[in-house]
Amino acid sequence: MQKLLSGINRQSTAVTSLISILLGMLVGAVAMLASGYNPVAAYNALFISALVEPFDMGETIRTISPLILTGLAVAIAFRTGLFNIGVEGQFIVGQLVAVIIALYLPLPPGLNMIVAMILGGVAGALWGAVPGILKATRGVHEVIISIMMNWIALYLSNVLIRTSLSEGADSTEKIPEAAMLRADFLTEMFDRARIHLGIFVALIAAALMYWLLWRTRLGYELRAVGHNPLAAEYAGMNVKRNIVMSMMISGLFAGLAGSTEALGTSGYLSIQHAFNGIGFDGIAVALLGANTPVGVILSAVLFGVLTYGGGNMQFAAGVPFEVIRIVFAAIILFVAANVSGKILEALRRKKGGDQA
Q1: How many of the other CB atoms lie within 10 Å of CB of 50?
Q2: Which member of 24, 62, 170, 239 has the lowest number of beta carbons within 10 Å of its beta carbon?
Q3: CA angle (275, 243, 294) in 5-degree steps
Q4: d(Cα 246, Cα 222) in Å, to the nearest integer?
Q5: Cβ(71)–Cβ(78) below 8 Å
Q6: What is the pLDDT of residues 234-282, one digit of tens each?
Q7: pTM summary value
């Protein structure tokens, strides 16, 4: 038992996340039982439908790709003491710019796709810079500005689609096939699923985040500002610059999520009457992943499986998709309330009492 607890101490983050996941799924099971559904059949259908067939695996990976990027976006802001709730808006702006570039900038095939994806990321970075600058220069809380920026992005995108990017239609034209982020070998490998190269972009972004935060001076300063901005300023660091840089890097990841999703999955942009929620899901992914690149990847895999499998669960087991959102909410609740930590602490105290 002592060896087990020592192991738990060394891997407390992973263990507490795992406990939160199990508790969240338990809450979902209780909700299903209360509603008259069979939770065993539902969870079986969820995981089977998401992971067994090549087509479903490809669609699951496609679902995971933007979640990794939006999770990284939230995580890097958290690391510097900021709460970037504006990832949703930066995601939308990234989509918008990527589609505009793909449709209207005459570039050779392949280069068009690369430029569209990069400029989509840059657009997200610039959109994220606004709350960063206002936070650094005027002391305005980044959450308030980010929420407003989300709505501005949504309505700006809708207006441009209706007035400039189409002739009064609800969506833009389909972008050229040469500008799509898909690869034939991936499509064939996963039985014509919509999987695209965005998964590699997301994994490279995770590696870059690790290198930036733990292998560069800028990363050290960003983390120092997050731990204690006053001490960082006393040590000679430029706190205001680091706040803006953090929000821009965060927005860059979110913009890349939007551009890869537009260029890889849909191929066009349509009017949205509400947020699609990928940016907000990034908050959950970052929290469960303890704001580390590896944790974000693993967390995104879980949420991707639940999201895609949850859609199929409706058909296979007749359980509404809203139950999966209950599982999401419960997992985040248990992580935020540190319920897992309290359970582990109680186990340690019990062990200490037994030894005494």
Answers
A1: 23
A2: 170
A3: 65
A4: 7
A5: no
A6: 988 999 999 999 999 999 999 999 999 999 998 999 999 889 889 999 9
A7: 0.89
